[in-house]
Amino acid sequence: MLVRKRGAGQLPREVGVLSVVAFVVALGFGIVAPAIPLYARSFGVGTTAVGLAVSAFAFFRFASAFAGGSLVERLGERAVLTLGLVTVAVTTGAAGLAGSFPLFLALRAAGGIGSAMFTVAALSLLLRVSPPTHRGRAAATYQGGFILGGIAGPAVGGLLAELSPRLPFLLYAGFLLLAGGLGLLFLRSGSAGPAAGTPDPAVPEPSDDPLPLRAAFRSRVYLAALVANLGVGWVLFGIRNSLVPLYVTEELGRTVAWAGAGLLAGSLAQAVGLLRSGRLADTWGRRPSLVLGAALATVSIGLLVLPPGIGTFLVAMAGYGLAASLLASVPAALVGDVSPARGGRVVAVFQMSADLGAVVGPLAAGWLTDVASYQVAFAVSTGVLALGLVAALALPREKRPG
């Protein structure tokens, strides 16, 4: 496997391939997302069933991630990544042709299993092939593919759903097969070797032996990554998409367009921040970068506890977007530092922490809003992010990578 010289500031080729795959996957997911509620409604079901169609994918993705990590350790990242993408492609295409809601729901659940396989395998491979001096940049580049695809997809998906709610599912299946083909053609299964040329004695030789999960849990570095990723799932993948639109329309008295503007501001800020966040993690250091990201995230969501105001809302969304650029790269780099070999279950649990936040966050915040207020829901969410800040501050001070 070709790994370019780290001194030249280059990333392994696999990072670029995985980033393109991430873009294709996120683009397809963004295309299908607006069609899911419409398609579920076409079966004549109620709002609760529509929500179940959305959550089934996330729940089975969470529930199967650990098994996906075990498969990575047994079969290797490339095989599991391809199998996961093909699984989501087949189930998504079949869901677009489903003739009943129970069948549609079952196919969505099976798609979540494939998604877990792909996500764990891709991140495990990314961290394994990336040298410690460039691990933050590798994670940021990979996340950038997801962000760009996530921004472009929904606009196209909304137009396609107007034509036919089935069409986005079939198109997404095609995108996934394309991504799977890219993985088969351009990803290799070899171990990450040292940079070309003279081996660097400061960088330990890589190994395919996975780190035992029990050993990972004894590491403060790994625990900090888990807590930070829980906050990312809680806010970025949870309440930002479920609670924020309602907050804008009901609490601020604005149109849905303003909610979209806030979400777009956050996405753009995150995309811009990713240009530098990985380099900060690699050159400034993991601990200060994580402290900065966690502090900025805590303050940004904390602004929403203040009296409602559209200006405060937009600043909070943009601020959290910048924080998310650090929280998307630094915790992943920390996991790679703890487990530089084939990640498997260590990476799976890391991914599960974000999925857990994405599942519990909207439910807890929604309940708190119903029994108390939006401000209380945002206050609890701020507390979850503050736990990540405490964990970051508790990290040992170590020499910067490189």
From TrEMBL:
<dbReference type="GO" id="GO:0005886">
    <property type="term" value="C:plasma membrane"/>
</dbReference>
<feature type="transmembrane region" description="Helical">
    <location>
        <begin position="79"/>
        <end position="99"/>
    </location>
</feature>
<dbReference type="GO" id="GO:0022857">
    <property type="term" value="F:transmembrane transporter activity"/>
</dbReference>
<keyword id="KW-0813">Transport</keyword>
<feature type="transmembrane region" description="Helical">
    <location>
        <begin position="15"/>
        <end position="36"/>
    </location>
</feature>
<keyword id="KW-0472">Membrane</keyword>
<feature type="transmembrane region" description="Helical">
    <location>
        <begin position="167"/>
        <end position="187"/>
    </location>
</feature>
<dbReference type="InterPro" id="IPR011701">
    <property type="entry name" value="MFS"/>
</dbReference>
<feature type="transmembrane region" description="Helical">
    <location>
        <begin position="374"/>
        <end position="395"/>
    </location>
</feature>
<feature type="domain" description="Major facilitator superfamily (MFS) profile">
    <location>
        <begin position="14"/>
        <end position="400"/>
    </location>
</feature>
<feature type="transmembrane region" description="Helical">
    <location>
        <begin position="105"/>
        <end position="127"/>
    </location>
</feature>
<feature type="transmembrane region" description="Helical">
    <location>
        <begin position="221"/>
        <end position="243"/>
    </location>
</feature>
<dbReference type="InterPro" id="IPR036259">
    <property type="entry name" value="MFS_trans_sf"/>
</dbReference>
<feature type="transmembrane region" description="Helical">
    <location>
        <begin position="312"/>
        <end position="334"/>
    </location>
</feature>
<feature type="transmembrane region" description="Helical">
    <location>
        <begin position="139"/>
        <end position="161"/>
    </location>
</feature>
<dbReference type="InterPro" id="IPR020846">
    <property type="entry name" value="MFS_dom"/>
</dbReference>
<feature type="transmembrane region" description="Helical">
    <location>
        <begin position="287"/>
        <end position="306"/>
    </location>
</feature>
<feature type="transmembrane region" description="Helical">
    <location>
        <begin position="346"/>
        <end position="368"/>
    </location>
</feature>
<feature type="transmembrane region" description="Helical">
    <location>
        <begin position="255"/>
        <end position="275"/>
    </location>
</feature>
<dbReference type="Pfam" id="PF07690">
    <property type="entry name" value="MFS_1"/>
</dbReference>
<dbReference type="InterPro" id="IPR050930">
    <property type="entry name" value="MFS_Vesicular_Transporter"/>
</dbReference>
<dbReference type="InterPro" id="IPR001958">
    <property type="entry name" value="Tet-R_TetA/multi-R_MdtG-like"/>
</dbReference>
<keyword id="KW-1133">Transmembrane helix</keyword>
<protein>
    <submittedName>
        <fullName>Predicted arabinose efflux permease, MFS family</fullName>
    </submittedName>
</protein>
<keyword id="KW-0812">Transmembrane</keyword>
<feature type="transmembrane region" description="Helical">
    <location>
        <begin position="42"/>
        <end position="67"/>
    </location>
</feature>
